[in-house]
TrEMBL record:
GO cellular component, one term: plasma membrane
Top-rank taxon, per record: Bacteria
Localization annotation: Endomembrane system
Organism in which the protein naturally occurs: Flavobacterium johnsoniae
UniProt GO MF annotations: transmembrane transporter activity
Keywords assigned: Membrane, Transmembrane, Transmembrane helix, Transport
Membrane topology category: Multi-pass membrane protein
Protein name per the record: MFS transporter
Record carries keyword Membrane: yes
Transmembrane segments: 7-26, 46-66, 78-95, 107-127, 166-186, 201-219, 231-248, 268-292, 304-326, 333-354, 366-385, 397-420, 487-505
């Protein structure tokens, strides 16, 4: 099926490189949002939907993509995915509305899922189980996470240098390289994992409906002030109704997308919670990006520089954690190292959020975040997969994806944004109440600022108004600074808490157990 000598490093590298464009179909355009928003001239809420919908489309299509990935010959599937990706990607360039742009981007995301599964099948068949699952997961995470940050950095750089269309052309070039590599490496056109096709269509529709409601909550929860809006309450209540309907459906279905039987395995329940927990800790990265851009006024290239710091951490921790897993080091050791790195990341930022904070202040803590990601992501994927039979492995995979990407990554980020806003309002109110005549420092600043405006030729009333506005602006900046400090203090406690629990209850004092091959380790 493959070209090249069996087990050769060259073939292994080629097969892994094939996966990179499909993993990054949406990453290279992560920093061209403002240009695209200006291009289409839509509202912020509509544009938020245009960002979220392709992500939800990709996640929702995964169960079907996994099934199709076993039925279609690998060479046909990966070449088709490459050609279709170029077509859909190019079509988004000529979209005349945000709706059509989102439609083509969603199709690209869906095809990317098929490409991921198609490109991973040969790696599973050629290098496992002899290659060892810890190494497979570690290498995959290194390529996936590492390429993600490289793509996002260069995407921001070239978008700033050229314009938002760079990402479209760059991706097309990547998919073209993918097609050439597939043409070389895949000689036989076979479907080695083919089984009788059976898919839970009804359960899939229920899951898509569930995702749609989560999409609504993520996109509009904060703007509608959450449960102050009755539609938000209705949507949240509908989630429980849909969940009940799905449980009834799964009861009478032989092979549901997410089989409740999978939760009889303790590691799946704990692993899904841990993946949610990791997603929550990881979500504060969007807070940093927002602060650098919206408060400090950094350009997109400076903001994207955070990905280089993360990449340094990943390049250290993923190989190290993979080696430790391969050498069967206790799970507790790796968990503690990961949580400690995330805790240091949040703690250092808590002490560095002060007036005059600059990009250099973010670099070291972001390296610690990259270290934490590299320790926790591979082990969380392996742990939730431990001992789960192949029949339930798709259920396990979707449980982890929903916990980490849907609830923690997307919905959690929206809730985190609300927390920042609420803390900001509280601090701004508190600081404003201190702007009284008894506050001599504030009065001194007001008098000095007013005097400067008077020297500029403004009238008494205009100078007074501008001086008060200037003082209010300083209060606003101080309040947002305090709000971010609150977030990072809270997250520091959340990160260090699992370490004390692991040590106190002597958890995971054993190496990783048996992990099955299926499904594709994402």
């Amino acid at each position: 099926m493959f070209a090249g000598k069996k087990g050769s490093l060259f073939t292994l590298m080629g097969l892994y490189i094939l996966t990179i464009p499909f993993f990054n179909g949406l990453n290279v355009t992560a920093y061209d949002n403002s240009q695209i928003l200006g291009h289409f001239g839509e509202s912020a809420t509509i544009f938020t939907y245009s960002i979220y919908i392709p992500i939800f489309a990709m996640l929702a299509f995964m169960p079907l993509g996994l099934k199709l990935g076993k039925q279609i010959p690998v060479r046909t599937m990966i070449l088709s995915a490459g050609f279709l990706s170029i077509i859909f990607n190019t079509a988004s360039l000529f979209a005349d509305s945000i709706e059509w742009f989102t439609f083509w981007r969603s199709l690209l995301a869906i095809v990317s899922v098929i490409g991921i599964f198609a490109s991973m099948v040969p790696i599973l068949l050629k290098y496992n189980p002899a290659f060892n699952m810890a190494l497979l997961y570690g290498i995959l995470q290194f390529i996936q996470k590492g390429s993600q940050h490289v793509y996002q950095y260069f995407g921001a750089y070239f978008t700033s240098f050229y314009n938002w269309t760079f990402g479209i052309y760059f991706l097309n070039f990547n998919f073209l390289v993918c097609i050439i590599l597939a043409w070389y490496f895949y000689k036989a056109d076979v479907a080695p994992m083919k089984t009788k096709f059976q898919f839970d269509w009804r359960g899939w529709i229920i899951m898509i409906l569930f995702f749609t409601i989560i999409l609504f909550l993520s996109a509009e929860g904060q703007s509608r002030n959450w449960f102050d809006d009755p539609k938000i309450g209705l949507a949240a209540g509908s989630l429980f109704v849909i969940l009940a309907v799905y449980l009834i459906h799964a009861r009478f279905t032989s092979d549901p997308i997410i089989d409740p039987e999978v939760y009889k395995y303790k590691n799946v329940v704990i692993g899904a919670f841990m993946m949610f927990y990791i997603g929550v800790m990881n979500g504060t990265g969007s807070v940093i990006t927002g602060y650098m851009t919206n408060v400090l006024g950094f350009d997109s290239v400076s903001g994207a520089g955070t990905h280089l710091a993360l990449l340094i951490g990943l390049c250290i921790s993923i190989p190290l954690s993979t080696y430790l897993l391969y050498k069967r080091v206790y799970l507790a050791t790796i968990w503690i190292m990961g949580f400690a790195c995330y805790g240091l990341y949040h703690s250092i930022l808590f002490f560095r959020f002060y007036p005059g904070i600059d990009f250099s202040d973010f670099f070291l803590p972001l390296i610690f975040k990259g270290l934490g990601m590299g320790f926790l992501f591979p082990i969380s994927l392996l742990y939730i997969s431990e001992g789960v039979p192949p029949k339930l492995s798709a259920s396990r995979m979707m449980s982890g994806i929903i916990a980490q990407a849907i609830f923690a990554g997307l919905l959690g980020s929206a809730i985190l944004g609300t927390l920042v806003s609420n803390f900001n309002v509280q601090h701004k109110t508190g600081l404003s109440q201190q702007l009284t005549e008894s506050n001599q420092l504030a009065q001194k600043q007001l008098v000095n600022t007013k005097r400067n405006y008077l020297f500029m030729g403004l009238s008494e009333a205009e100078a007074q108004k501008k001086a008060e506005k200037s003082l209010s602006g300083k209060t606003s900046q101080a309040s947002i600074l305090l709000a971010y400090k609150d977030i990072y203090l809270m997250m520091s406690a959340i990160c260090f808490l699992p370490i004390f629990i692991i040590l106190l209850f002597k958890l995971w004092r054993r190496p990783i157990g048996r992990v099955e091959l299926e499904p594709i380790p994402i």
